[in-house]
Structure prediction request, 173 residues.
Amino acid sequence: MAVPIVCFVGKSNSGKTTFIERVIPELIRAGYKVATVKHAGHGFDLDTEGKDSWRHKQAGASSVVVLSKGSMAMFADVSDQMKVEEVRDRFLDGTYDLIIAEGWKNEGYPKIVIVREQVGEILISSEGLLAVVSDKPIDLDVPVFALNDVPAVAALIMKHFPRRARSEHELEA
Prediction:
């Protein structure tokens, strides 16, 4: 079975990253193995000029993987904007219980919308809408949580996306 995806969406500076940072430990404490995928609408560059990996990429390598004990990073060319399930299927193995994606508000993934009064409105589509996290009253037919109600949002996520069964090998690891 494919690893489920839940998106956190909202306007820029609405607190999506901060909320995700707070919900991940709640899920981890409940035994979840979580991966995250962040949409960077304006592009990004993580590799450092002059480092070996940067030099490999500059030399023409389509993908560069950097490994150390306990960590891995990959810099790869992609043809176009990838969907979260393409990232999941190509780069994340099936040992995860959940992928939390930041962004992809116009895709049909299950989503939690962050609404902050000081950053303005976001058009909220009901397609796949699980909940709203807001600092103001919202009248929708989904649960609405306060910005500090992280445990309740984590509980909702766990209800919708139960952990998968672990093999003996995974439990020993």
